[in-house]
Design brief:
The protein is α+β, with helices and mostly antiparallel strands. Helices cover 50% and strands 16% of the residues. Among the domains are: 41-88, no CATH class; 94-129, no CATH class; 137-261, 2-Layer Sandwich (Tetrahydropterin Synthase, Chain A); 354-395, no CATH class. The strands form 4 sheets. Strands 6, 9, 10 and 11 form a 4-stranded antiparallel β-sheet that branches. A 3-stranded antiparallel β-sheet has the order 3-2-5, covered by helices on one side. It has a two-stranded antiparallel sheet with strand order 1-4.
Length: 396
């Protein structure tokens, strides 16, 4: 060792003896009065440096051995510079599509970079995490899919059996599809230690809460879409409060059934309910068709009655007014009125019958009787024949 020529103990600055018996506690030695030799100190430092540099051996003086030491120092500097350059070059990294680069310096987040060639301080000063923000991830609750994610390979009753609001049990399998939010990828990297476990626990808790507020009949029939939407909103809200940096894409109900032990009974009840709904729908259809028709007929009858009432009232009013006028005329000239009434009545009575009008006071030249009509003349036949000829001419 370079320090082997030193007597006494204790390192490069050690000094034997001294007036105080102090073996040297510092570079100047508290016990000695003689100041240190600077040349000796420089030589010792040079020897120590030469021992640390590979190939740096040689004389400890200032002759040719000193030149060899200086050349070895330059080589070491070049090697050190190359090592530093290589180390700095390791800071380059590539962010591929569907990724973002999360940069840290001494473990502290400093920024997010998009795709392309990027640079950050190399390890151990800087670091880069590149989460995949483009892939869609899936978590299965209540079942496990078969190879390739197709079908249901295994049922998990501890996750699928859920208590409903009316104290029944439903066997419900569902799937949660999620992505890393590109705008909050740093939250996903630093705030979640187990992303899939966290999302699964929150989703299962939200589903149990939503199912616990509904009856089993509604769950099995017409509220599955609303259940999925409500669970999605609850899970997204909880993850946002945790600062998870996760975006829930879809909550899909894969299978909703009663437990296997009571499934046949529920199927029968469901079939009966569907029959009842079908009967109600048919009754509503019949009512919607018949009620308007009945109302239309009622309105028609009412309008006809109203028209008849108006007509009868008008006729009665007209007859009464006519009678009043006839009565006024009769009062003014009773004889003329009676004769006119007689003539009008006879016109109505005799207007539609066959008749022969004979002028008993008139005479015709060459007549055998004073009345001017032969008694044996069949006037009724002539009248009937004339009427037939008149009708035939009118038809033509």
């Amino acid at each position: 060792m370079p320090w082997s020529n030193q007597s006494g103990g204790g390192g490069p600055w050690g000094r034997p003896g001294g007036n105080g018996g102090n073996g040297g506690g510092g570079p100047w030695g508290n016990g000695g009065k003689t100041p240190p030799n600077l040349e000796d100190l420089l030589r010792r430092g040079q020897d120590r440096l030469r021992g640390l540099i590979p190939g740096g051996g040689g004389s400890s003086g200032y002759g040719g051995g000193g030149s060899t030491g200086l050349g070895g120092g330059r080589s070491a500097a070049v090697i050190a510079a190359l090592a530093v350059a290589v180390w700095l070059a390791t800071g380059f990294y590539t962010v591929y599509p569907r990724q973002v680069g999360i940069e840290t310096i001494f473990g502290r987040y400093v920024g997010t970079k998009g795709e392309g060639l990027r640079y950050n301080f190399p390890y151990p000063i800087g670091g880069v995490v590149k989460p995949d923000v483009g892939s869609q991830n899936s978590i299965q609750i209540g079942f496990r899919a078969g190879p390739g994610g197709q079908g249901r390979n295994r049922d998990v009753p501890d996750e699928s059996l859920i208590l409903t609001g009316d104290e029944n049990i439903v066997d419900l399998d569902f799937e949660v599809q999620w992505r890393i939010n590109p705008l909050k990828a740093s939250d996903f990297v630093f705030n979640l230690q187990n992303p899939e476990g966290t999302i699964k626990a929150i989703s299962e808790s939200a589903m149990r809460e939503v199912i616990g507020r509904r009856n089993i009949q509604a769950i099995l029939t017409n509220e599955q879409s609303s259940i999925a939407q409500e669970v999605k909103e609850m899970v997204q809200k909880a993850l946002d409060e945790y600062g998870a940096g996760v975006r829930i894409e879809v909550v899909q109900l894969v299978s909703v059934n009663p437990p296997p032990e009571v499934r046949p009974a529920f199927i029968d009840v469901n079939a009966a309910q569907q029959d009842a709904d079908t009967a109600q729908n048919e009754a509503k259809t019949y009512a919607s068709r018949e009620v308007p028709q009945a109302r239309g007929k009622a309105s028609q009858i009412f309008q006809q009655a109203e028209a008849y009432r108006t007509k009868a009232t008008a006729d009665a009013t007209g007859q009464a007014a006519r009678f009043s006028e006839v009565y006024a005329s009769y009062k003014a000239a009773p004889a003329i009125s009676r004769e006119r009434i007689f003539l009008e009545t006879m016109e109505k009575v005799l207007g539609s019958v066959n008749k022969v009008i004979i002028d008993q006071n008139g005479t015709q030249p060459g007549a055998a009787t004073a009345a001017g009509v032969l008694p044996v003349l069949p006037l009724s036949e002539f009248g009937a024949r004339a009427q037939t000829q008149t009708q035939t001419g009118a038809a033509r």
